[in-house]
Amino acid sequence: MNAFQLALRVLRVDRRTRTSAILTAVGVAVATGLVLLLATLPFATQAREQRAQWQDAYWYAKEGKSALLVQSSKDYFDGKEIRRVDLAVTDPGAVHLPAGIDKLPAPGQTMVSPELGKLLNRTPANQLGDRFGKPVAALGEQALRYPEQLVVLVGHSPQELQGASQEAKSGVAGRPVADFPQTEAEPDGMLTLLTGVGVVVLLVPSLVLVASSARLTAARREQRMAALRLAGATPGQVTSMVAAETGLSAVVGALAGLLLSPALYGLATFVPWGGGTWLSSDFSLPVGLLVAIVVAIPALVVLAGVLGLRRALSTPLFAGGGHQVKPLHWWRLLSLPVAGLFFLYAIMTGRDSNSGQELVLVGLFLVVGSAMLVGPWVTSAVGGTFVRMWRRPSTLLAGRRLREDPKGAYRATAGIVLAVFAGSMGLTLLPSFASLGGDSSKFVDSALYADVRPDKAEAMTEQVNRKLAEGGSRERAVAAPAVLLSKASGKKDKDQEGVYLTYVMTCADAAKVIRLGLTEKDCKPDVDLYTPEGFDATKYVVANDFFGEGATTIPLGSMQVGRYPSGSGASAPFVMEPTALPAGAQPVDSTIVVPTTDADREQVRTALASVAGSSGIRSRDQHFNDQQRELDDVRRVTVIGLTAAAILAGCSAAIATAGAVMDRRRTFGALIAAGTPVRVLSRALRTEAALPSLVVTIGAGVAGTLVGLGLFSLVSHNPVTLTPWLLAPVVLGVGVALLGASVCTPALKRVAAEPLNDE
C-alpha cells in the first residue's frame, strides 16, 4: 500500500482526521482565493488604465508630425468629475481608433459615455449640455476607465485647436499627437501598495487558519507516525505518508480556491476605486502567475506539515510517550526593540532619500515578524503569573497550559495580533492623512474661478456676464488681476520673502469674492491699499516677476493704506484700488471669479466654461471632493481588509481552541472521569485564550500606532491626528478571541460524551 492509499484509508476510518482535512481544505481554499484576488488587483488597474490612455493627451503627446490635435481636461457637474477630450483630425489616414470608439466626431459633434448621455437627457442644457455640443454617438465600455465614468469626446476643426484663435474662442489649445497610444499602461501605484499590505494582512490569518485546522489532529498524527517509526518505517516513508495526507486536503483546497476566485472577482467589481467600479474582464491573471500561486500555497502547507514531524522522525519515543518542555529564553524579547530600532533608522533614512523606502518595508516586516518571537514568551509569562497567583482551579489549569505549551497557546491569537496591528496602523494613518486635506484658494468657498491671460480678462469677463444674463442668472463675474509688490531694495529669492500678491480691484468686489476677512464695512473712500498687516508703501515697488534679478519694477509711491482683520494672517493677499495702480504697471496674471449659490452653480460653470474652457475652472468644493474620494477609497479598502482579517482570525482562534481540546482529549477525559465539572474546564480554556490575547493585542495596538506615526512622518511634518477609534482594533481583537474561545464548551461536552478508551 503506497502513501496515497494509506492517507485515503486514514481519512475513511478516522472521523477526526477527516474533519481536520476538511477544515484544512477550507482554509487553503480561502487563502488561495484571497491571494488570487489580491494578485489580480494590479493587473485590474492596468487594464483600466489601458482603456483610458486615450483620455489623457499629456502622456502621449509628442513633438513632430501629428495626425491629431488633442487636449484633455476635467469638468465637473454636481460634484461628479467629467473627463473631456477635445480633438481635431489633421491626417485621418494615420489614426488608429482606440477600442470602444467606432468613429471620431466631426467638428461641432460630440461622443459621450452612456452615463453622461443619461445625465444630459435629464439636465437643462444651460446647466450642462451647452458646454459640449450635439451628441451623435456613445462611447463603448472599452473606451472607459470604469462603467460609470462620465466622458465626452468633442470634435473640432484643426483651426479651432491651433493656438490663439481657439484660445480666444474657448480657451482650448490642442497638443500635437501622432496617434492614439498603443503602449502598455502602468498599474495604479497606490492600489498596488495596498495589495502588498493586503497579502500580509489577509494571507497570514489564512495560513494560521490552515495551521489551526491541521492542529486538530496533531497529537494523534504525531503518535501514529511515531508508532510507524518504532515499527520499522523509514523517515522517508513516514514523510511520504504525511505529505500525502496533508497534500490531499491542500490540493483539494487550492482547486476549490481556484473555482472560488471568479465569485470573489465578481464581488470585487462592486467595490469602487478611483471614482467607479470595475468591468468583470479587468480581473485576470497571467497563466504562469496563476499556476504558480495555485501550486505554491499547497506546497507551503505540505512543507509545514512535514516540518511538524521533526520530533516523530528523530525521537519517536518522546513523540509517542511525552517529552520535556523547554523553557523559552528571554532573548526573544530583544527581537522587538531591535526591529523597532531598525524601523526607526529606516524612517530617518527614508526622509532624506527615496532609496530608504525599501528599508522601511524591511523594517515593517521585521516588526511584524518579531511578534512571532515575543508573543509566545509573553504567553508563557502570563501563564507563570497564573500559576503563582491562582485562586481558582481553572486559573491554575490555564496557567499550567500556558507554561507548558506557550507556542501552541499563542498560535490561536497570532492572526488576531496581526489584524490588531494593521488596524491600529491604519487608524493612525487615515485621520492624519485626512487632516492634511485643504485648499489654498484665496476666493470664497462658493466661488468658481479660472485663470486667464491678463490682456483678455476684461473681454472674457464681459462675455461670461452676457451669458449669465441671457440665462437669467443674477450672479456676475468679476475680474481679479494680480500684481506683485516687492521690497524696493534687496534681492527677491525663490521663497518669495518680502513679495506680496496684490489683487487690483475695488474693495466692494474684493469683499464679495476674496476670502480675506475684508468686508464692505472696511472699505473707505480715501484708502488705496488694503493689507492684513502694517505696511509702508514707500519701501515697495510693483514687480513683473516673482523672483529674478532682471525683473522690471515700478515704485509704488506714497498711498493711503488701510488694515483689515484677517484670519489668514500675513499670507493673505493685498487689495489695491484700480485707480491707485502706478502708471505702466501690468498684472502678472488674472482670474475670473464668479460667486455662486447651490441653485445656479452649474449654470455659472457652463457660462464660464464656454469662455474660459472647462479645464481651468476650479473651486474649493471640487478640490475637497477629489481629496475625499481618495481618502474614501483607502478607507473602504482598509475596512474591508481588516474585517476579512478579523473574520479569519476569529475562525482560526475557534479552531485552535477546539484543537487544544482535541490535543488534550485524554487529559480532559481523565479529569472529567475523576469528577472535574465541565464548567471548570471551560473556564480554564477561556482564561488561557482570553487573557494572553488581551496582553498581546494591547501590545500589537501600541506597536501599530507607533509604526503609523513613523510612516506618517515620511510624508508630513504636521502633528498626527489621534482619535478614540484607535481603541477599536484592541476591543475587536479581544472580542474575537472570546468568541473563538467560546467553542471550548461544546468540544468539552463532546469529550465527556465519548468513551475514554477511544484513545
Automatic annotation (TrEMBL):
GO terms for cellular component: plasma membrane. The chain crosses the membrane at residues 21-43, 190-211, 247-267, 287-309, 330-348, 360-387, 408-430, 637-661, 689-714, 726-748. Keywords: Cell membrane, Membrane, Transmembrane, Transmembrane helix. It is found in: Cell membrane. InterPro entries: ABC3_permease_C, Membrane_comp_ABC_pdt. Residues 199-316 form the ABC3 transporter permease C-terminal domain. Coiled coil: none annotated. It is a multi-pass membrane protein. This is ABC transporter permease.
